[in-house]
Amino acid sequence: MFVPLKLVFGRCYLFWGPNSSCSGPGDCVDEPCDAFVVEETERGFQCRLDVPSPLYKYIIGKKGETKKRLETETRTSISIPKPGVEGEIVITGQQRSGVVSARTRIDVLLDSFRKKQPFTHFLSLALNQPAIQEKFLQFKEEVLEKCSKDHGVSSSLFQNPAKLHLTLGTLVLLNEQEIQKACDLLQRCKEDFVDQITGGQPLTVEVAGVEYMNDDPAMTDVLYAKVHMKDGSDRLQMVADQLVERFVASGLMLKEWDRVKLHATVMNTLFRKDPTEERNNTMTGKSSFKERESFNGQNILKLFENFHFGEVQLDSVRLSQRFSSDASGYYATSGQLCFS
């Protein structure tokens, strides 16, 4: 009997259920729909897989228990490089079914732990042009002048103007190979659909107005500036949604929303703890109330509802590195897709 399909890092699997006709652990095959390569050797069968070194520990387990259990249940031998050394994990066994089962179980195991890793990169559109930075600093000055007596409002809440940006989605890239995979995918997206949507030209957007992300403006966690195309079209939304769709399909990104929320964070309570903080809930607007001290944003929303931060010509989508800075003060770029 089969149980439902599961997507694991871009590959789908069909798992054998409890009523299947497996004669033993080594014969139970968790067979993938797009079977990976299993080589026949003089001693049996072998499968190689690239795994970023930070994930080795999840295959090994405490005192090697996870690795031993996998080897015992699938009747295989699993060779793992030394900690910190990038290389291939090699699964060998007498039976092809056992090798396939071990490989599939490792993929599922790693998929589970990968989801728990803090993100390392994100797709961004820079909004840190000098004119926007100047207007943002004006916004900050006026907010502090008019609303500093409101609960929780202080200068520590504001974004670093050099890092103003739109976030399209976050990624966990754990070695150079995964970073290169993301860069290559960006270029394929340019060829496949981005050039057609943008016409090979920068996208002119307006940054104007502020909104909040939680239910009660008196207990605001994130305040963001709204971004929209100056010509009224939905081309930026189309680029954002299709990029995220493609990255999710590749397994490099997890799907969080049906549509990308086009916003630029200007105030965030997480900045109060650490001005460099760019946690996943910062990017997406999800609140962790145990870690946040909200502020009263009611007056800010009333007074600055239509504040105009200016116009920007967006000319690229960047693969930005978390916790980094380049010469301009923006995030270091691992790769980019240029519109023109």
Tell me what the structure shows.
By secondary structure, the chain is α+β, with helices and mostly antiparallel strands. It folds into 2 domains: 2-114, K Homology domain, type 1 (Ribosomal Protein S8, Chain: A, domain 1), CATH 3.30.1370; 121-338, Alpha-Beta Complex (Cyclic Phosphodiesterase, Chain: A). It is 31% helix and 26% strand. It has 9 helices and 14 strands. The strands form 4 sheets. Strands 3-4-6-5 form a 4-stranded antiparallel β-sheet, covered by helices on one side. Strand 3 (39-41) and strand 4 form a beta hairpin. The longest helix has 23 residues, at 176-198.
- State which percent range the strand residues make up: 25-35%
Main sheet? 4 strands, antiparallel
How far apart are the first and last residues' alpha carbons, in Å? Answer: 52 Å
CATH top level of the largest domain is Alpha Beta
Strand order of the largest sheet: 3-4-6-5
The second-level CATH architecture of the largest domain is Alpha-Beta Complex
Tally the helices: what do you get? 9
Shape, principal axes of CA atoms = elongated
Written as H for each helix and E for each strand, in order along the chain, the element string is: EEEEHHEEHEHEHEEHEHHHEEE
- Average pLDDT works out at 87
Radius of gyration: 24 Å
